[in-house]
């Protein structure tokens, strides 16, 4: 707020030696109630957009495009909702942890490639493949927050594969 006052008052607001991460961290000093409300709002928007996207699949001709747009936007909103709980800097640091970095990169790449495949390349089968990869990457990313969940899933599938090969 002081920087805004300094700029509006005609003084140069760049006199601090802080970097952009500190500025973003300072800007995210919301109260807990506001954080929870922001989380719930973004999560509800994300879920509604996802459901709306699935419902749009049944619209002839433009349904696939609407599905891709709503579904991808819903995933982004759901993803952003967690930034309200932790704060953007802490969330970004956790996204880049060694346990989540691969899932984060795959998820972001799939979000971008889904939209590219739908609007630029106009290959709808490919965009649906990227939607499936979005779901898998988002699930894998989310499981990283539950202790031992990834290990349990891997053991389950390895047990399933060993049963199928016998």
Q: Could you explain the architecture of this structure?
A:
By secondary structure, the chain is mainly alpha-helical. It contains 8 helices and no strands. It has helices spanning 2-8, 20-27, 32-56, 63-86, 88-95, 101-120, 124-143, 149-165. Helix 6 runs antiparallel to helix 7 (124-143). The longest helix is centred in the first third of the chain and has 25 residues, at 32-56. The radius of gyration is 20 Å and the shape is globular.
Question: What is the H-and-E element order?
Answer: HHHHHHHH
Count of extended strands: 0
Low-confidence stretches: none
Largest sheet: none
- From the helix content, strand content and strand pairing, which structural class follows? mainly alpha
Q: Please compute the radius of gyration using only Cα atoms.
A: 20 Å
Helical segment tally?
8
Helix content: over 70%
Rough outline: globular
Q: Average the pLDDT over all residues and give the rounded result.
A: 84
| Share of residues in strands | under 5%
Query: Gap between N and C termini, in Å?
Result: 67 Å
Quick summary:
By secondary structure, the protein is mostly helical. Helix content is 78%, strand content 0%.
């Amino acid at each position: 707020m002081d920087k805004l006052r300094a700029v509006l008052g005609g003084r140069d607001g760049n006199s601090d030696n802080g970097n952009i991460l500190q500025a973003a961290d300072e800007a995210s000093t919301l109260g807990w109630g506001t954080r929870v409300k922001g989380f719930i709002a973004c999560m509800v928007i994300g879920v509604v957009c996802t459901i709306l996207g699935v419902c749009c699949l049944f619209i002839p001709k433009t349904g696939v495009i609407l599905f891709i747009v709503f579904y991808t936007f819903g995933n982004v909103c759901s993803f952003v909702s967690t930034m309200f709980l932790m704060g953007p800097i802490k969330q970004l640091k956790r996204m880049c942890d060694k346990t989540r970095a691969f899932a984060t990169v795959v998820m972001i790449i799939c979000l971008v490639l889904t939209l590219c495949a739908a609007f630029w390349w106009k290959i709808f089968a490919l965009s649906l493949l990227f939607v499936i990869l979005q779901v898998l990457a988002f699930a894998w990313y989310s499981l990283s927050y539950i202790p031992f969940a990834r290990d349990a899933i891997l053991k389950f599938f390895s047990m399933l594969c060993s049963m199928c090969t016998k």
